[in-house]
Amino acid sequence: MTPMSCPLPSHTPGSDAGCTIFVKLWQFDTDDRTQFHKDMEAELGAPENGVATAILHRDMRETVTFSSLEGGATMTSDATGGAEILVISGTAAVNGEALRQNAWLRLPDGSALTATAGAEGATLWMKTGHLPYAKAPQV
User: Fold this and answer.
1) I need a surface site. Which of 45, 56, 68, 123 has the fewest CB within 10 A?
2) CA atoms within 13 A on the CB side of 72
3) DSSP track, 18-79
4) CA 127 to CA 58: how far, in whole Å?
5) Angle (nearest 5°) at CA 106 between 67 and 136
Protein backbone atom coordinates (compact mmCIF):
# COMPACT_ATOMS: atom_id res chain seq x y z
CA MET A 1 0.00 0.00 0.00
CA THR A 2 1.45 3.36 -0.94
CA PRO A 3 0.78 6.42 1.18
CA MET A 4 -1.60 8.96 -0.31
CA SER A 5 -0.34 12.47 -0.66
CA CYS A 6 -2.56 15.24 0.63
CA PRO A 7 -2.57 18.61 -1.08
CA LEU A 8 -1.24 21.48 0.97
CA PRO A 9 -3.92 23.90 2.19
CA SER A 10 -4.27 27.07 0.16
CA HIS A 11 -4.47 29.11 3.35
CA THR A 12 -3.77 28.67 7.04
CA PRO A 13 -6.18 30.74 9.13
CA GLY A 14 -5.32 31.52 12.73
CA SER A 15 -3.57 33.95 15.02
CA ASP A 16 -0.66 33.84 17.46
CA ALA A 17 -3.04 34.49 20.38
CA GLY A 18 -5.58 31.88 19.24
CA CYS A 19 -8.99 32.42 17.70
CA THR A 20 -12.39 31.00 16.91
CA ILE A 21 -12.96 30.34 13.21
CA PHE A 22 -16.39 30.38 11.60
CA VAL A 23 -16.40 27.92 8.70
CA LYS A 24 -19.03 28.40 6.03
CA LEU A 25 -18.79 25.94 3.15
CA TRP A 26 -19.08 27.39 -0.34
CA GLN A 27 -18.68 30.90 1.04
CA PHE A 28 -17.25 32.26 -2.19
CA ASP A 29 -18.07 31.87 -5.84
CA THR A 30 -15.46 29.51 -7.33
CA ASP A 31 -14.54 32.20 -9.89
CA ASP A 32 -13.91 34.82 -7.17
CA ARG A 33 -10.23 34.61 -6.26
CA THR A 34 -9.89 38.14 -4.83
CA GLN A 35 -8.23 38.09 -1.41
CA PHE A 36 -8.02 40.98 1.02
CA HIS A 37 -7.58 41.70 4.72
CA LYS A 38 -9.65 44.21 6.69
CA ASP A 39 -9.80 45.33 10.29
CA MET A 40 -13.58 45.21 10.64
CA GLU A 41 -13.79 47.53 13.64
CA ALA A 42 -11.54 50.13 11.99
CA GLU A 43 -13.90 50.13 8.98
CA LEU A 44 -16.99 51.04 11.05
CA GLY A 45 -18.71 54.29 10.14
CA ALA A 46 -20.21 56.72 12.64
CA PRO A 47 -23.16 55.22 14.54
CA GLU A 48 -26.66 56.18 13.46
CA ASN A 49 -29.38 55.42 15.99
CA GLY A 50 -26.91 53.21 17.85
CA VAL A 51 -25.80 51.19 14.81
CA ALA A 52 -22.38 51.51 13.16
CA THR A 53 -21.77 49.51 9.97
CA ALA A 54 -18.81 48.67 7.75
CA ILE A 55 -19.22 47.34 4.22
CA LEU A 56 -16.60 44.59 3.96
CA HIS A 57 -17.40 43.45 0.41
CA ARG A 58 -19.95 44.34 -2.25
CA ASP A 59 -20.46 43.14 -5.79
CA MET A 60 -23.41 42.56 -8.12
CA ARG A 61 -24.53 39.44 -6.23
CA GLU A 62 -23.87 40.11 -2.57
CA THR A 63 -23.06 42.55 0.20
CA VAL A 64 -21.10 41.58 3.32
CA THR A 65 -21.26 43.88 6.34
CA PHE A 66 -20.03 44.09 9.92
CA SER A 67 -22.25 46.02 12.34
CA SER A 68 -21.84 47.13 15.93
CA LEU A 69 -25.12 47.73 17.77
CA GLU A 70 -25.32 49.59 21.06
CA GLY A 71 -27.53 48.04 23.75
CA GLY A 72 -31.18 48.13 22.64
CA ALA A 73 -30.39 49.48 19.14
CA THR A 74 -32.31 48.05 16.19
CA MET A 75 -31.00 47.35 12.69
CA THR A 76 -33.29 46.59 9.75
CA SER A 77 -32.75 45.31 6.21
CA ASP A 78 -35.04 44.23 3.41
CA ALA A 79 -32.61 41.28 2.97
CA THR A 80 -33.31 41.06 -0.75
CA GLY A 81 -31.77 37.83 -2.03
CA GLY A 82 -31.77 36.33 1.46
CA ALA A 83 -29.49 36.91 4.41
CA GLU A 84 -27.12 35.07 6.69
CA ILE A 85 -26.28 36.56 10.08
CA LEU A 86 -23.54 35.55 12.54
CA VAL A 87 -23.58 36.98 16.07
CA ILE A 88 -19.93 37.70 16.77
CA SER A 89 -20.47 39.10 20.27
CA GLY A 90 -23.30 40.01 22.60
CA THR A 91 -26.91 39.01 22.02
CA ALA A 92 -29.58 40.03 19.56
CA ALA A 93 -33.20 39.25 18.86
CA VAL A 94 -33.49 38.64 15.11
CA ASN A 95 -37.08 38.65 13.90
CA GLY A 96 -38.08 37.76 17.45
CA GLU A 97 -35.63 34.86 17.86
CA ALA A 98 -33.05 35.29 20.66
CA LEU A 99 -29.49 34.67 19.46
CA ARG A 100 -26.27 34.54 21.51
CA GLN A 101 -22.62 34.84 20.57
CA ASN A 102 -21.66 32.41 17.74
CA ALA A 103 -25.28 31.86 16.69
CA TRP A 104 -25.93 31.79 12.94
CA LEU A 105 -29.21 32.33 11.12
CA ARG A 106 -30.26 32.17 7.46
CA LEU A 107 -33.28 34.08 6.18
CA PRO A 108 -34.72 33.15 2.77
CA ASP A 109 -35.17 35.65 -0.05
CA GLY A 110 -38.19 37.83 0.66
CA SER A 111 -37.73 37.86 4.45
CA ALA A 112 -37.14 41.28 5.99
CA LEU A 113 -34.69 41.51 8.87
CA THR A 114 -35.12 43.25 12.21
CA ALA A 115 -32.27 42.75 14.70
CA THR A 116 -32.38 44.33 18.16
CA ALA A 117 -29.29 44.16 20.36
CA GLY A 118 -29.51 42.96 23.94
CA ALA A 119 -28.64 45.29 26.81
CA GLU A 120 -24.89 44.68 26.38
CA GLY A 121 -24.97 45.39 22.63
CA ALA A 122 -23.96 43.10 19.79
CA THR A 123 -21.67 42.79 16.81
CA LEU A 124 -23.06 41.08 13.72
CA TRP A 125 -21.58 39.82 10.45
CA MET A 126 -24.17 39.72 7.67
CA LYS A 127 -24.20 38.60 4.06
CA THR A 128 -27.18 39.51 1.86
CA GLY A 129 -28.27 39.01 -1.73
CA HIS A 130 -26.37 35.81 -2.45
CA LEU A 131 -28.84 32.99 -1.83
CA PRO A 132 -30.37 32.90 -5.33
CA TYR A 133 -26.82 32.19 -6.62
CA ALA A 134 -25.72 29.73 -3.90
CA LYS A 135 -24.87 26.25 -5.16
CA ALA A 136 -22.53 23.47 -4.22
CA PRO A 137 -19.29 23.40 -6.20
CA GLN A 138 -19.07 20.93 -9.07
CA VAL A 139 -17.04 17.87 -8.08
Assistant:
1) 45
2) 1
3) -------TT-S-TT--------HHHH----BTTEEEEEEEE-SS-EEEEEEE-TT-EEEE--
4) 10
5) 115
Q: Within 10 A of 26 (CB to CB), how many other CB atoms are there?
A: 10
CA distance 133 to 61: 8
**pTM score:** 0.78
Please list the residues that pair with 115 across neighbouring strands.
75, 94
Residue 103's identity, in one-letter code, is: A
Cβ–Cβ < 8 Å for 62, 52: no
Q: How does pLDDT run across 12-53, given as a tens digit for each residue?
A: 777 788 877 766 655 656 666 666 677 888 889 899 999 999
- Let me know how long the chain is: 139
Q: Distance from CA of residue 30 to its chain's centroid?
A: 18
CA distance to 34, 46, 59, 70, per residue, from 104 (Å):
25, 26, 23, 20
Dihedral sign, Cα of residue 29, residue 78, residue 40, residue 99: negative
